[in-house]
Design a protein that fits this description.
The protein is an alpha/beta fold and 411 residues long. It has helices spanning 10-21, 63-68, 81-93, 97-125, 143-148, 150-158, 168-174, 197-210, 253-257, 321-333, 378-393; strands at 2-6, 25-30, 45-46, 74-76, 131-132, 136-140, 164-166, 184-188, 192-194, 214-217, 220-226, 229-234, 240-241, 244-247, 267-276, 287-289, 294-299, 302-311, 343-351, 358-362, 365-372. It has a domain at 57-95 and 131-191 and 266-351: 2-Layer Sandwich (D-Amino Acid Oxidase, Chain A, domain 2).
Length: 411
């Protein structure tokens, strides 16, 4: 079977590898080199414990604050609100207690298989050398702030996530560089992180090529359905026919889906960070500063400080004040932090209202498949998404129930 995969990020490359493992002849198309989109500048976390959605009960009362504070952990641009309204309505609906439980079960199903699915890929490709297994810390100023978050953490515990609550002495022992103003934390041992997110993708892409896969630097203008099968039209080149086509180009997927009559409620979480090349302080593992909603991740290119969600679409100019404020705050969390030479970055995370990805056949099109909408979980769910999508493409009994990720929802 000849299959084209559109998108050379962490999802597209993993999908291509999984299809190739089942015997497909795979060609990946992307306007950029592998790993140059959202996969380039993410926080580098394999967040196997993140089994709760962004929308949680009571979030509706926070919307006025999201609109008022452009620098908050979850912010909405006023100018984008009319276009965002249908997505936002579905997002708030997903935060009802019954929906949160259902979504959390579906995220657990993916995350519980994510690590075991990645392991052979990381080993075979050589990307294992880029992964660290030090867990993650979620730090709080005081016990009262920690207790306010307990319902979400208890939901994770109920789904089998190992969580250790630690006090000031243990926190200082694990990360001596942290300010004593932070007195308690949740330690989640079952987190991994990569010291170079871009290199994870490029290493997996090299593994794909070594096994006969092709990666073409070309933007796909459109997809058309012909009698003999689907065709894609690369910019400046003739149309090409394939047996199957997979759309896995993240936040840009809607551009290719909509002309085919498929319009999922896909929108964009705009993520920001600053990578500090010479931080002059040392962290061992990712640290999430809970009162401000950002991560600090140690990487081989320095300390990456970033996170949060800005809902503002693909076209609006970046708000560079967001990462600058994160780093200014980080200077109080890690005294002595050197921000000199920090490199700014903004990326587009493809996001569905229910925090669940879209994985499967495009509605009404058996020969077109989709894999996008992973939000901030793309790196974590790359391998399991590839496996599930390949099982669907080859009509193999899926390893988990694909119904919660049905592409027909939210259309």
């Amino acid at each position: 079977m000849r299959i084209a995969v559109i998108g050379a990020g962490i999802i597209g490359v993993n999908v291509a590898l999984a299809l190739q493992a089942r015997g497909a002849e795979v060609t990946v198309f992307d306007r950029s080199a592998p790993g140059q989109g959202a996969s380039f500048g993410n926080a580098g976390c394999f967040a196997f414990s993140e089994v709760t959605p962004i929308a949680m009960p009571g979030l509706v009362w926070s919307v006025p604050g999201m609109l008022a504070d452009p620098h908050g952990p979850l912010a909405i641009r006023w100018s984008y609100l009319p276009r965002l309204a249908p997505w936002l309505a579905a997002f708030l609906k997903a935060g009802r207690p019954g929906e949160v439980a259902r979504i959390s079960d579906a995220l657990t199903a993916l995350c519980s298989r994510a690590k075991e699915t990645y392991a052979p890929l990381l080993a075979a490709s050589g990307a294992e050398a880029l992964v660290r297994r030090e867990g993650a810390l979620f730090i709080f100023r005081n016990r009262k702030a920690l207790e306010a978050e307990l319902p979400e953490w208890e939901m994770k515990r109920a789904r089998g996530i190992a969580i250790e609550e630690i006090g000031p002495e243990r926190l200082r022992e694990m990360e001596p560089a942290l300010s004593p103003e932070y007195t308690c934390a949740f330690h989640v041992p079952d987190w991994h992180h990569t010291v170079n997110p871009e290199a994870i993708v490029t290493t997996l892409a090299a593994h794909l090529r070594a096994q006969g896969g092709r990666i073409r630097r070309a933007e796909v203008d459109r997809i058309e359905m012909k009698g003999e099968g689907p065709q894609l039209k690369p910019a400046g080149a003739p149309a090409e026919s394939f047996d199957r086509i997979v759309i896995a180009c993240g936040a840009h997927s809607l551009k290719l889906c909509a002309p085919l009559g498929y319009r999922p409620l896909l929108d964009t979480e705009r993520g920001y960070n600053l990578t500090l090349p010479d931080p002059q302080v040392s962290l061992t593992r990712p640290v999430c500063v809970m009162d401000k909603g950002y991560f600090m991740t140690p990487m081989e290119m320095g300390l990456r400080v970033g996170g949060g969600v800005e809902l503002g679409g693909l076209a609006a100019p970046p708000n560079w004040d967001r990462p600058e404020r994160m780093v200014a705050h980080a200077e109080t969390v890690v005294p002595g932090l050197n921000r000199e030479g920090g490199r700014q970055w903004m990326g587009f995370r493809p996001s569905m209202p229910d925090s669940l990805p879209v994985i499967g056949r495009m509605p009404g099109q058996d020969k077109l498949l989709v894999a996008f909408g992973h939000g901030h979980m793309g790196l974590t769910l790359g391998a399991i998404t590839g496996r599930l999508l390949a099982e669907i493409a080859f009509d193999v009994a899926p390893c988990i129930d694909p119904a919660p990720y049905d592409p027909a929802r939210f259309t």
